[in-house]
Design a protein that fits this description.
This protein is an alpha/beta fold and about 350 residues long. It is built from eleven helices and ten strands. It has a domain of about 210 residues. Strands 1-10-8-9 form a four-stranded parallel beta sheet.
Length: about 350
């Protein structure tokens, strides 16, 4: 066939940009679908370490985040010079005539101020109200309000090099959780899920537990953006387990619905989703298929993981009486340990029941 004489046939042999993008996205989506539905087979081509390219040192993480907790300067960040300059003005004063800053004060007042302090006429340096001592062989400085923490000082790592330009709660918390002040980036737990994978296909890799608030006005809020997967696959997003009889919403079957009927429904939904996936190659459709499968498996795994009736009394006593009250911080700590024991890689606990300036 002479293609020069048959321009219509020539089109059949040309891969347009539109077809290239469509076929390329379908190929990427196929890889995503295969890795989500059969992670063991997908990882078999990688050498050792359970399918990972590098042997991870961390096995699991339980992250306790105290939203609105006391300042580090009252806990473990000892700053003795605050006592030396207590009561002195922090900011230098600017003379408009000479266009110079005063010698009194420590820094030029050029940075942003929070809404809570913008109306102040005076900004005195304030020392901590608590006494500090060095503890452990490492000589860590810890205040007197943390006596139990001081007893395990050598088992802790104090990071004092953190820096952020955020001056308010919400952007500061978002930065701490995602590495950026603006929402939309993957959270820490999502990155851990992406990097370390799962050891239990019946439970999410990343779980989120939120303590019940005190109910007082001004309690620091917690938003779903803090455990979002951002631009990563939705399979890496944190799954919130609620306190009470229903840890995960819409997980249990409806009254009168058998397990077999539920399974048939999921299989039919999967077949419909596969039709859409074959047509568009969207990786998020693969994520949806995997999440439906996960929800079915969680019907058995979540009730077992959240049932503490078999915990021995010696363990319950370690967590205190509130560990048997769903939604309390102690109960979430106990649940976090049980999830970690069952292979959940990253468990995030948010406690919002305190705020130093509330």
């Amino acid at each position: 066939m002479n293609l020069e004489r048959e321009p219509c046939d020539l089109y059949k042999h040309v891969l347009t940009r539109r077809h290239l993008l469509r076929r390329g996205s379908a190929s990427i989506g196929s890889l995503a679908l295969g890795s989500l539905l059969a992670p063991e087979a997908f990882a078999a081509g990688l050498a050792g370490n359970g399918g990972r390219q590098f042997a991870p040192k961390a096995k699991r993480i339980i992250f306790l985040f105290m939203n609105g907790a006391p300042s580090q300067q009252d806990l473990f960040d000892y700053k003795p010079q605050l006592s030396d300059h207590h009561g002195q003005e922090l900011f230098k004063k600017f003379d408009a005539k000479s266009k110079t800053w005063s010698k009194e004060g420590f820094i030029e007042k050029t940075q942003r101020l929070t809404g809570m302090t913008s109306g102040q006429s005076s900004f005195p340096v304030a020392r901590s109200n608590w006494k500090f001592k060095q503890h452990g062989e490492g000589g860590a400085w810890i205040s007197e309000i943390l006596p139990h923490t001081a007893g395990i000082a050598d088992d802790l790592c104090f990071v004092k090099s953190m820096h952020t330009e955020a001056i308010n709660h919400d952007p500061g918390v978002t930065f701490f959780q995602t590495g950026h002040q603006q929402p939309g980036r993957p959270s820490m737990g999502s990155w851990m899920s992406y990097g370390l994978g799962t050891d239990n296909a019946n439970l999410p890799t990343f779980c989120v537990l939120i303590s019940n608030g005190t109910g007082r006005p001004g309690s620091q809020p917690v938003y779903t953006k803090l455990w979002s997967s951002g631009f990563l696959s939705g399979v890496h997003q944190g799954v919130q387990l609620r306190g009470g009889k229903t840890p995960v919403l819409y997980l249990n079957s409806q009254p009168g619905e058998s397990v077999a009927a539920r399974k048939r429904m999921i299989e039919r939904m999967e077949s419909l989703n596969r039709i859409q996936f074959d047509a568009f190659g969207d990786p998020e459709i693969a994520t949806r298929i995997a999440q439906y499968e996960m929800s079915f498996r969680m019907q058995m795994s979540v009730p077992e993981a959240t049932d503490i009736s078999n915990e021995p009394r010696t363990i319950l006593d370690l967590y205190g009486p509130e560990c048997q009250q769903p939604g309390k911080f102690a109960a979430n700590c106990l649940l976090a340990r049980r999830l970690a024991e069952r292979g959940v890689r990253f468990v995030q606990l948010y406690h919002r029941g305190w705020d130093q300036h509330g």
